[in-house]
Design a protein that fits this description.
One of its GO terms (biological process) is tRNA methylation. This protein is an alpha+beta fold and about 300 residues long. It contains nine helices and eight strands. A three-stranded antiparallel beta sheet has the order 1-3-2, covered by helices on one side. A three-stranded antiparallel beta sheet has the order 6-8-7.
Length: about 300
């Protein structure tokens, strides 16, 4: 409806109608095929010659629909727009009737005749409103979506939370010593205790939690993003012990091996700076820099 010169490409995936989940009506077809036919029908109602193509992508949902040309001259645009409005209203009526059916109301022939493509004439006030508002109930996303995966949080804030949680785990129980050999001598390294995400949250102040709550995933996402320091398994937070990490596989693709090599020693080692026992790995094998002089 944006303009007569508009063309479109759509790759149908999730089964949704204009106002909610798409309800199946033809048991003889697969759900995917029926939904593709529905989306193609929407294009036809909107006055497009709808073409179908199959993309060369590794996905089970790879059938695309393309509208490159119109079925009507530009002079008939107002008439077709009215037809589109009626179609949208009929789909809304269908959604409401389907909802009624699910709670026990009679709904003959799936739609009771309310879902005909042209639909019945909408009330006058709806027709007038359609000129300016296509779908009053529809809430589009903002033009600029806010990134909410904790990646946009200030670095100082993230560092503060990481340090607080690490100290919490280190001081949660009597020192848990892990013995390992370095250069022939036995050393102990405190790996701390593991705590549930709930327990960790209970020890953080309300201002920090409030700031994290505005981010999708919150505390868990921030800790998972801090891969160097933490390991989050089954809802419990552990301090990562790099001695237990598996060495890079020789069968690893060359591109990934090259990327790993390029990232070696490009960031400072958190444990070397903050952990009371320093890093559990010797400088030669730690993927992070033990001091600024080692940074690449």
């Amino acid at each position: 409806r944006s303009s007569y010169s508009c063309c479109y490409f759509v790759l149908p995936c999730c089964f949704f109608d204009f106002h909610g989940k798409y309800s199946r009506r033809q048991s003889k077809k697969t759900q995917y095929r029926e939904y593709l036919d529905f989306v193609a029908h929407v294009g036809s109602v909107c006055g497009f010659h709808v073409e179908e193509d199959c993309l060369r992508i590794p996905s089970t949902k790879r059938v695309s629909l393309v509208g490159k040309s119109r079925t009507y001259p530009a002079a008939e645009r107002a008439l077709i727009d009215k037809q589109i409005t009626q179609f949208i209203n009929s789909r809304q009526t269908c959604a409401l009737a389907t909802c009624d059916r699910r709670v026990g109301f009679n709904h003959e022939g799936h739609c009771g005749g309310l879902c005909k493509e042209a639909g019945s004439e909408p009330p006058e006030d709806e027709t007038e409103a359609a000129g300016t508002i296509w779908m009053p109930e529809f809430q589009p996303r903002e033009k600029v979506e806010q990134v909410r995966n904790c990646a946009s949080l200030p670095r100082d804030f993230v560092d503060e939370v990481v340090l607080n949680v690490a100290n919490l785990l280190l001081n949660a129980a009597p020192q848990k010593s892990c013995s390992h050999k370095q250069g022939g001598s036995m050393n102990t390294w405190n790996q701390g205790e593991s705590l549930s995400l709930r327990e960790v949250a209970e020890h953080l102040n309300k201002e920090i939690l409030k700031k994290l709550k505005s981010e999708y995933g919150g505390l868990q996402t921030l800790l998972k993003n801090s891969h160097q320091v933490f390991e989050v398994l089954d809802g419990r937070v552990h301090i990562r012990d790099w001695r237990k990490e598996k060495p890079p596989s020789k069968s690893k693709p060359e591109v990934k091996r090259r990327l790993s090599a390029e990232a070696f020693k490009t960031r400072l080692c958190w444990f070397f700076i903050h952990h009371p026992d320093g890093c559990s790995l010797p400088s030669e094998t730690c993927p992070y820099a033990h001091g600024t002089e080692e940074l690449r």
